[in-house]
């Protein structure tokens, strides 16, 4: 039996099972998350230390929650210098890409003296969540902190769970220092989101929280939305590959596995009208899977949340891709740029055989924090605008109010808002 199912696009029952997004029973989890967050609201740092002992095995005092400058200096002595050079290269490329997204405040004067405009300002204080514990994700640090820095955010607060010995991975610390993070705290999970949203004795509340995490982090972000801003509600990772007869099955299988190894709930889908390619990719998946250290994780993702879908042609493959609205969309086709105009829904689009998804994860420049679970229909990748806010500017001249005031009065009165109308009428009388 193969490691992945092969289905036909005409089999709507199986296709719909793929389109139905992978959800856990969140009611019970939400109650647990809410209880954790209430505890942090009530007991502050003491609750953070208690949850860090319970979930991470790290016995920290309140004075040890914040990473010290000495710990960051020590981290620089522990990292491989070639890796550090690669991190700096990635940081520079991410920074240059995001600088192109910057918008400026603008003002438009009119002939009668009226001035209309828009103030575009950075948020003052943001929190970024970075997964941690036994893992190290310096790329996630860069992808969250660099756009915030480019936007002009003056206070970038990072939270990440510590290892059992109370330390943070040195690569995570070095990436934070390189990216301009101003504060780092050894706390993770829902309790970290609560600290960022509500504040504790050590951690001042932030204006917005960004960054991916597990289901507890995602539910916590959902609960605090409105108290603070959030970037998006991230789900399991996913890749969708559209391939034609020109595609290399080795490449397609490798790219699918690059997502399947993330998580048991991850999804890897191939859409192709070439049945021979479908068979070859299926065989490659089995061969490459056997060589992966995380093969059990990937095997479960392939078996439960992935498929190779046989379509009626490239046009149908592209239409289905839009229906999936994937986090990562790869076009392994002979003329990928010819297809780009037909793409409506995708977090990031990778064109051609030499643009595998990991290029975007680490070093290309665009952000790898992307909408998942079909939310690319209405969400965008993390970007500079995520860390900015806009205010409208209105300065009406006398002549403008004299000329347009009666229209404003009529519109206010038809809505039954007499006080609105009167605020204009009293000025019109003087004019």
From TrEMBL:
Pfam families: Histidinol_dh
List of residues binding NAD(+): 129, 191, 214
Cofactor(s) this protein cannot do without: Zn(2+)
Top-tier EC class: oxidoreductase
GO biological process: L-histidine biosynthetic process
Metabolic or biological pathway, per its Swiss-Prot or TrEMBL entry: Amino-acid biosynthesis; L-histidine biosynthesis; L-histidine from 5-phospho-alpha-D-ribose 1-diphosphate: step 9/9
Top-level division of the source organism's lineage: Bacteria
Cofactor note as given: Binds 1 zinc ion per subunit.
SUPFAM superfamilies: ALDH-like (SSF53720)
Residues given in the record as substrate binding sites: 237, 259, 262, 328, 361, 415, 420
Binding site for Zn(2+): 259, 262, 361, 420
GO CC, any one term: cytosol
Transmembrane segments: none
Record-level Gene Ontology MF annotations: histidinol dehydrogenase activity; NAD binding; zinc ion binding
Catalytic activity of the protein: L-histidinol + 2 NAD(+) + H2O = L-histidine + 2 NADH + 3 H(+)
Keyword Amino-acid biosynthesis annotated: yes
Coiled-coil zones: 12-39
Protein role: Catalyzes the sequential NAD-dependent oxidations of L-histidinol to L-histidinaldehyde and then to L-histidine.
Name under which the protein is recorded: Histidinol dehydrogenase
Biological source species: Desulforamulus ferrireducens
């Amino acid at each position: 039996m193969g490691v992945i199912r092969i289905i036909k696009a005409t089999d709507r029952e199986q296709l719909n099972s793929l389109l139905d997004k992978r959800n856990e029973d969140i009611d019970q989890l939400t109650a647990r998350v809410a209880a954790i967050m209430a505890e942090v609201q009530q007991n502050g740092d003491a609750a953070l230390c208690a949850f860090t002992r319970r979930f991470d095995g790290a016995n920290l005092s309140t004075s040890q929650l914040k990473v010290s400058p000495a710990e960051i200096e020590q981290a620089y002595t522990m990292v491989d210098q070639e890796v550090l050079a690669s991190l700096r290269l990635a940081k520079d490329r991410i920074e240059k890409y995001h600088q192109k997204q910057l918008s400026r405040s603008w003002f438009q004067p009119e002939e009668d003296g009226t001035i209309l405009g828009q103030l575009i300002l950075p948020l003052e204080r943001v929190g970024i969540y970075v997964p941690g514990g036994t893992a190290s994700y310096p790329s996630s640090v860069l992808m969250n902190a660099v756009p915030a820095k480019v936007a002009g955010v003056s206070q970038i607060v990072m939270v990440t769970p510590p290892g059992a010995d109370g330390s943070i991975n040195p690569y995570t610390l070095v990436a934070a220092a390189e990216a301009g993070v101003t504060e780092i705290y050894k706390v993770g999970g829902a309790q970290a989101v609560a600290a960022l949203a509500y504040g504790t004795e050590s951690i001042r509340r932030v204006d917005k929280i960004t960054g991916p995490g597990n289901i507890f982090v995602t539910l916590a972000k959902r609960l605090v939305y409105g108290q603070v801003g959030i970037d998006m509600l991230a789900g399991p990772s996913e890749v969708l590959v559209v391939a034609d007869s020109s595609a290399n099955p080795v490449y397609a299988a490798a790219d699918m596995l690059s997502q399947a190894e993330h998580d048991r709930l991850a999804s890897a889908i191939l859409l192709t009208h070439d049945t021979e390619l479908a068979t070859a990719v299926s065989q490659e998946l089995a061969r490459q899977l056997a060589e992966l250290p995380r093969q059990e994780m990937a095997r479960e993702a392939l078996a439960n949340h992935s498929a190779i879908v046989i379509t009626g042609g490239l046009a149908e493959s592209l239409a289905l891709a839009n229906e999936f609205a994937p986090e990562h969309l790869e076009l392994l086709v002979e003329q990928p740029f010819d297809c780009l105009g037909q793409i409506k829904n995708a977090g990031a689009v990778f064109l051609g055989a030499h643009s595998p998804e990991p290029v975007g994860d680490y070093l290309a420049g665009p952000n790898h924090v992307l909408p998942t679970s079909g939310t690319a229909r209405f969400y965008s990748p993390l970007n500079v605008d995520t860390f900015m806010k806009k205010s409208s500017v209105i300065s009406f001249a006398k002549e403008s109010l004299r000329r347009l005031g009666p229209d404003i009065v009529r519109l206010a009165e038809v809505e039954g808002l007499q006080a609105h109308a009167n605020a204009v009428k009293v000025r019109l009388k003087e004019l």
